[in-house]
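Hey,

Quick one before I head out. I ran the complex with zinc ion overnight. Inputs first:
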Amino acid sequence: MVGRVYFSAIFPVLVLFSVLTGFPLQGERRSGNAVFCTACSRRISGRYLILQGKPYCSRKCMESALPKCSVCGKPSEKTWVAQDDPRKVFCERCRDLPKCDYCGNVGRRRSDGTVICDSCEREAVSDPSQAQAIFRELRSELRSVFDIGTNHRIRFSIVTPSELARIKKSPLDPRQKGLFQHEKQMRTEQTYNKRTGRTISRKTSVVGEKFSIFVLGNLPPPEFRHAVIHELTHDWMSEYCPQIKDPAVREGTCEFVAWCFLRKTGGRDPAMQAICRRLENNQDPVYGGGFRKMRKIAGSSSPDQSIARLKSFLPGAR
Ligand SMILES: [Zn+2]
Ligand SMILES: [Zn+2]
Ligand SMILES: [Zn+2]
Ligand SMILES: [Zn+2]
């Protein structure tokens, strides 16, 4: 079998997608061994196509073996695969359409710059009382699964991206989905000498504390789950290891707990698995770097054992 390359190219690797298939080669049967079409099994005479080392008698047969674009359904020689979900394949034309931030399907860009598809938008946890109920369930689930929790009275609310930015008092990172806030009310008592005006003593004490968790109200359920577990872990850390200031350890711990939780409770749900892969591959130095740091310290094949190791590493954590 003689094969000749008639097209070869180096593809740009996109940030989100990588190349799956190559271009077909052309082969020609000269003499000797019989060649059979991979798709229709017919014996081939003369010229034929080779794709990934396999012979095809016609373009139609070759196309039947090509991956189909997840958006337009057309078979394509040159395809890109979504990095967090290998089942999603895009042709060159559909590759650049905006993709849903949560599931990778084609979506539309919202005014805050995020992209969402119709099905994720339909499922989004946007009803405040439904969100409260899921929050309470997740809080008790996290406690029963990993014994992670506090007795704080947490005020939970769902918010819009602009509200979250206002609460945070800084522009929102488009990847941020939630926020944990621990406010302390302090009182300082000062006694001083009336005659000289000199301070004799000063005592500062905490007179009240407020714990709040805010999560975006436009998240599909698996993303909501991840965001709530992440923020609940901040609450737990605020009680048991408030002395940890390194942002990579703080955020890395929250991501690591969420990753263990999703792995333990998500089963084979592809959306949960996609979130886990995203946490593993996050290139952000604080979130992704922190996650990998904690995984290196505490990671084990079992989520329970990982959490036990994590607790023995964190000072103050039970
Ligand atoms: Zn054929
Ligand atoms: Zn397409
Ligand atoms: Zn989606
Ligand atoms: Zn965080």
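The longest strand covers residues 199-216.

Talk tomorrow,
K.
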